[in-house]
Write a structure and sequence with these properties.
about 25% strand, alpha+beta, 6-stranded antiparallel beta sheet
Length: about 160
């Protein structure tokens, strides 16, 4: 009979300790995530809120964006950072980043017209970017043949 009581007590103690460990681990991980959010993460997260907005040649507002109008808008609204108006001029800003070192918020650039930098998107992680394509603001895989063949480089505007 005493054995039954000690098993119950130890089971109860294990349950309480496990519950407390889970509670505290989730609290600590929430704090770690909040502290770890970079300016780039903030820009990438804000960009995601604009998914589905329409494409408009020369567009710089939520009524319609072109590629550089979209990145300019996202950086201004989420980080109060002013970017130049065109993709080519945005490409002249920031610090070059190797493909393997991309972080959310980095700008990724493409030559969609075959001649010069003509498209820009915002890297969101997992080899994907969000940008104002001709089909509106959407997330695209950088691994698609179309994008891979036109990739020029990436720039980190904020840390």
């Amino acid at each position: 009979m005493e054995m039954g009581i000690s098993v119950k007590k130890s089971s109860w103690i294990i349950a309480v300790v496990t519950a407390l460990a889970l509670l505290f681990s989730s609290l600590f991980s929430l704090n770690a995530d909040a502290a770890a959010q970079t300016k780039g993460d903030k820009a990438a997260a804000y960009a995601q809120t604009l998914k589905g907005k329409p494409f408009k040649w020369g567009g710089t507002t939520t009524k319609g964006f072109d590629a550089s109008g979209f990145t300019q808008y996202v950086y201004a609204k989420s980080l109060k950072v002013n970017l130049p108006r065109t993709s080519a001029d945005q490409y002249k800003k920031g610090k070059s980043v190797a493909l393997k070192n991309l972080k959310p918020g980095d700008l990724v650039f493409y030559k969609t017209n075959g001649k010069s930098v003509s498209f820009v998107g915002i890297y969101v992680g997992k080899q994907q970017f969000i940008g104002a394509t001709s089909n509106g603001v959407k997330v695209q895989s950088m691994n698609l043949t179309y994008w891979k063949s036109k990739y020029v480089g990436a720039k980190r505007i904020v840390n």
